[in-house]
Amino acid sequence: MDDAPRPAAPRHLEPAELQALDAHWRAANYLAVGQIYLLANPLLAEPLRPEHVKPRLLGHWGTTPGLNLVYTHLNRVIRARALDALCVWGPGHGGPAVLANSWLDGTYSDTYPDVSRDRSGMAKLFRQFSFPGGVPSHVAPETPGSIHEGGELGYSLTHAYGAAFDTPGLVVTCVIGDGEAETGPLAASWHANKFLDPVHDGAVLPVLHLNGYKIANPAVLARLPQDELDALLRGYGHNPIHVTGDDPAAVHDAMAAALDQALDRIADIQRRARSEEVRDRPRWPAIVLRTPKGWTGPHEVDGVPVEGTWRAHQVPLSEVRENPDHLRQLEAWLRSYRPDELFDAAGRPRPEVLAYIPEGARRLGASPHANGGLLLRELPVPPLDRYAVKVERPGTALHEPTRVLGGLLAAVMAATAERRDFRVVGPDETASNRLDALYTATGKAWQAETLDTDEHLARDGRVMEVLSEHLCQGWLEGYLLTGRHGLFASYEAFAHVVDSMVNQHIKWLRTARRLPWRRPIASLNYLLTSHVWRQDHNGFSHQDPGFVDHILDKSPEVVRVYLPPDANTLLSVADHALRSRDYVNVIVAGKQPGFDWLTLDEARAHCARGVGSWTWAGTEDGSREPDVVLACAGDVPTLETLAAAGLLRHHLPELAVRVVNVVDMTRLLPRDAHPHGMPDFEYDAVFTRDRPVIFAYHGYPWLIHRLAYRRAGHQHLHVRGYKEEGTTTTPFDMVVRNDLDRYRLVMDVVDRVPGLAVRAVALRQAMADARTRHHAWIRAHGTDLPEVADWTWPG
């Protein structure tokens, strides 16, 4: 193939084509400026007066004309080629452009009938923008045709690839702003083309929009010479096509040629791959679009240049109500688009403006791929009893919970082999996390070079591994938002890499749930394993359980956190999460061998409750309240709690001990703070109002206090958890270092049950001595005490 860098050959649009495309572009520009500035007088039917202008001018003009150009030309090729298309709009606050274009193509009025495609609707479109009770200045869930929140930069290209996976008929254009292109996630996203299968996936067409500046500084890629930028993009595996200019007619010609050239190339790549003529990794096209920042806006304001500079980034004319010169300039700017040629007296777009608008669901604002719930199908999760482990007696047999889950996930992967709507993503850890049963059903997606020593790589694989949590997150978000299902498996400590990304997804879901036209999508499911308590190879650097804290700070109607204590509860929780809609589910589970506590039926009942007393583990007889409650959440804390309960059963048989396990962390919240929260009467029945509660928790102990601080018995709550004491050491030494071990929990019971400190002084001393013996033993032998390593439930 010819890989030499080249600009787009001018297409030489026919005069009527050029006139219609330019009319649409001018109309979109006019509508965008109107959204930023106008409160009234939308068609300039009278001279512009200060009261026609919004009192607070908010919005971003600089990127808007370029986005309008892309939208205009996408309309043409979608209509001409009958394309199924989606566009991801990356530049941050590009809302005016996408809102203007969806109003022009009719999808905005279809979605919001009160914003009609006439003078009245135009006035509402203008007034609502960045106005109290209105819509945001960026592309948001409220925007028809969007799957990408434009408020935070860096994720557009990975979202676009996520949307393209397993949609072979879809072309996803992704407009990347030159400021966004400087972010780490976007830089990593250029590697996503090595995972795109031209046979089973759609295509992604990146449009790198270089207008020169960010808010106040030049953009790095915009200042690279064209040959250097071309070499960079070619090194990423793209064949770039350059469109540069500021003369509208010339740029229209070049943009039309660039899109035709790119789409011809995409069609050829897919045809050759799908006919098995060529299976080498293709060099996909990309468009580099260089136009001035704030193109067609004011050239100068107050004697300083604006168009083509950073000053055009937001509001070029900022004192329109106070400064008559600014008001005159704004009116001249609006009239420069010749609105009387674009809209009739009733404010309806003239036929020429709409000449290249696609029809029906092919309109970018109406694509069902941008409202993924319309396409979502139930996931075929098989019956759990095929994969559950048998439990004859609690705490006597061991299984690796995530390996058990891997069997279930492999079955789901196999059941979706034809429909291809389920993927598992993770940063190079699928086998490490004991999920390698997946490879019996599919391989790992890979389009780059393969060697004889490689394992499980497949061009059509649906396990996605790349050592970038940002890419994993973005791929899965794009995949879910376009109507599919998936799971993100990660080492617990490094889920923090995507803290900010999950924030944005939670905000998206929260907003989308309030929009009746947005259909529910499959939940974003995290499996956090290789967790804080078992880092035998890695140590302190891999120990951080705080992702749960981060999630539980977010919108309560969206977030859920589960800590299943064994293999069967993990199956039950995963079954629920995979079937759920519009949530972010965080599941924390170990991959190392752990005790089986509950049968599948018991696990289902326990998970349905979310929290419950394990009567078989305690010593209360129901005749009175317990003397103490031993509570736990997480697999290792559960083990230590039950071991402590066993010690108390042996040494203090007269003590009434209640053992409570928490699977659903949000159950600890009050009902008015979270839909899963327990009402006070239920919480009091489980934890009591006045008895000491010794709570062994998987993560940072203050989270439990925060969740329960409004409860009546909070002053009696004592929490043990991770307190930043870690290293590469034995499993039991980790809990000892953090005072979460069974011996410390028994000491806490002795210290906190009234009157017990005097009666059980010998027991407390024996527990302290056991901790001392532990320290000496591991330094001498490198393994845990036999009484710990060989422990089983004694009940």
Describe the structure.
With 795 residues, the protein is of the alpha/beta class. The strands form six sheets. It has a six-stranded parallel sheet with strand order 1-5-6-4-3-2, sandwiched between helices. It starts with 5 loop residues before the first strand and ends in a 6-residue tail after the last helix. Pfam families: XFP, XFP_C, XFP_N. It comes from Streptomyces celluloflavus. Belongs to the XFP family. Keywords: Lyase, Thiamine pyrophosphate.
Secondary-structure blueprint of this entry?
Layout: E1 6-7, H1 15-37, H2 64-81, E2 84-89, H3 95-104, H4 107-111, H5 119-128, H6 156-164, E3 170-177, H7 184-189, E4 203-210, H8 226-235, E5 238-244, H9 248-274, E6 284-290, E7 300-301, E8 304-305, H10 324-335, H11 339-342, E9 398-399, H12 401-415, E10 422-426, E11 444-445, E12 457-458, E13 463-465, H13 469-481, E14 485-491, H14 499-512, E15 524-529, H15 547-552, E16 559-562, H16 567-579, E17 584-588, E18 594-595, H17 600-609, E19 611-613, E20 628-633, H18 635-651, E21 657-662, H19 680-687, E22 693-697, H20 702-708, E23 717-720, H21 731-737, H22 742-752, H23 756-759, H24 761-781, H25 786-789
Helix pairs in contact: 1-2, 1-3, 1-5, 2-3, 2-9, 6-13, 12-16, 16-17, 18-22, 22-24
Distance between the termini: 72 Å
Major sheet: size, sense and barrel closure? 6 strands, parallel
Overall mean pLDDT = 95
Number of helices: 25
Q: Can you tell me the residue ranges where pLDDT is under 50 for at least 5 consecutive residues?
A: 1-5
Number of E-state strands: 23
- Helix/strand structural class: alpha/beta
Q: How much strand content do the residues show?
A: 5-15%
Shape: elongated
Radius of gyration: 30 Å
What order do the strands of the largest sheet run in, or round the barrel if closed? Answer: 1-5-6-4-3-2
The level of helicity is 25-40%
Family: Belongs to the XFP family.
InterPro entries: Phosphoketolase, THDP-binding, Transketo_C/PFOR_II, Xul5P/Fru6P_PKetolase, Xul5P/Fru6P_PKetolase_C, Xul5P/Fru6P_PKetolase_CS, Xul5P/Fru6P_PKetolase_N, Xul5P/Fru6P_PKetolase_ThDP_BS
Domain Xylulose 5-phosphate/Fructose 6-phosphate phosphoketolase C-terminal: 591-793
Enzyme class: lyase
